[in-house]
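Much of the work behind modern protein science is quiet bookkeeping, done one molecule at a time. The fold becomes a row of whole numbers, each drawn from a learned catalogue of backbone shapes. The protein below has been through that process, and both of its lines are reproduced in full.
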Amino acid sequence: MLLPTVPVRADRARAHAHCVTSNPEDRLALPARFAAFLLVGGSCLAANTLVLWALTAELGIHYLASTVIAFAAITPLGFVLNKWLTFRTRREYARIELPRYLSAMAASFGANLLLMYLLVSVLGLWYLAASILVAVVLVIANFLASDRWSFRVQR
């Protein structure tokens, strides 16, 4: 599936001159970046849900401990897929982007754990439904953190 790119104009190229992670002609337009982010996030959510289920239902691990393990296991996949498909940044900037991404995901993870506890232990929602609901609630914040900070390196 090909996603539309931002048309290159001289004024736009000058505006992106400070952004060193991707060429303006390679950068997806905002709606396409968000669509790609949703595609990557949906894939990661599916993998996360499978790991969460296997750890909790099959191995008997507490749902919060399973959430920690699943999140830690899937986060590197999200970084690689978003770098390659969504934000299309240059390989050499991974050393800057990875710590930023992990910081943003750590903040998201804190919110994830809190919401999981509230939804499951306080409100009695099934842990897998709660996990999916939490992902939906956090998607905009995660996209903005990735788009505006994690994958944007300025000189």
Summary: Residues 71 and 109 are 8 Å apart (CA to CA). The helical segments are 10-15, 30-58, 63-86, 94-122, 127-150. The chain has a mean pLDDT of 88. The radius of gyration is 17 Å.
